[in-house]
Amino acid sequence: MFKIAIMGCGVVGSGVADILIQKSEFLSEKFNEKVELAKIVDIRDFKGTAYAPYTTADSEDVFRDDDIKLVVVTIGGCTIAYDLAKKALMSGRHVVTSNKEVVAEYGCELVKLAFENNVRFLYEASAGGGIPIIRPLNICLAANDVYEIQGILNGTTNYILTKMKNDRMTFEDALAKAQKNGYAEANPSADVDGFDAVRKIAILSTIAYDEEISYKDLSCKGIRDISYEDLELAGRAGFAIKLIAGSKKTEKGIEASVEPLLLPKDNMLAGVSGVFNAVLVKGSYTGDSMFYGQGAGKMPTASAVLGDIIEILGKNTDSTLPKFVSQKAKLDKSNDNKYRYFVRFHFCDDSVDETEMIEIIKAIFGNESVYCNPSEQAIGIAAIVTGYINEQEISKKIDAFSSAVKVKTGNYIKVYS
Ligand code: HSE
């Protein structure tokens, strides 16, 4: 008998319950052992639903049942979820979670604790939702020296950027639409400021490079400053703007961040639209591998949780995988690597015509292509894509430019390279 408990019956937890209820017979046959959902811990009343027969508000009901061998932690936030995961592991139960906050904050400790208790702590659903990415990094690509990961890891921000570009929307209107469709949280800061994506890239990078990377050490910038004009002008220059959670090995360590980036339109990530997520992994033997799919939502994320449950049922007890290691990675935070930049200017004086705008910009930035006036409502706006320059130099150049001529510099965004 292999009984499973779910702690937290919200969006993902209820999806896991649905699949377990539907598939318990299939799982029992496949693994030659009775597999069943035993308990759902949640303080809400699910009277009249399929969850009611399993529900309890008391987590001790799980710890009192010796046949419960696996606990799914789908409670949000860090505190209670962490305490329950820890308690379950210490009681000799496997833990599977979709909670990226817990994995990003305590992954290393919980993997170690699982190892000490001869059980597994698995977290495929914590990054990329339904996309299989953690197990491929841990197993399928493990022979490679992975040297770069670039991902669109937040569906809400990708939806907002897609809407802004396709429907000429402001950031605020596109965010409201995302909230109406249930993609963004009521407090959307975790999505739009990059805090969700930074945890996910820290988790993936830790696995890929086999060194601990804390999300707290990574630079993180969201999409609040991106305007429709940025998307339009970047498009004219042959680029898409995406919120990229990326990391790569440089000579000085690992450079990792979350920030909006310009991607050439033929880059595989540039074509990822709406709420979809994608992860591009560069390996020494495989070259580029792209993982694409639904990065959020009830059933895609529940599917990833079930993948972990099935791995445990398959009695793959190699507890060294997935291996959150305790050796700290050396991060490259020098900020002196050179990139090309997209720079947007807003001329305050309406009488400056297009030819003059181009002359003024070229006088300071050199002979770059200048893209002007993204729409009839946005006259006096121009943008360039610079040559390779480091962040301090571009920032100095912009400051000098802004004080020398009557122009506001709206935004500058790195071009992916
Ligand atoms: N808010 C997240 C997103 C949900 O939009 O991608 C999945 O972590």
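^ L-homoserine complex. The longest helix spans residues 11-31. The pocket of L-homoserine is lined by residues 129, 154-156, 183, 191, 196, 295-296 (CB under 6 Å).
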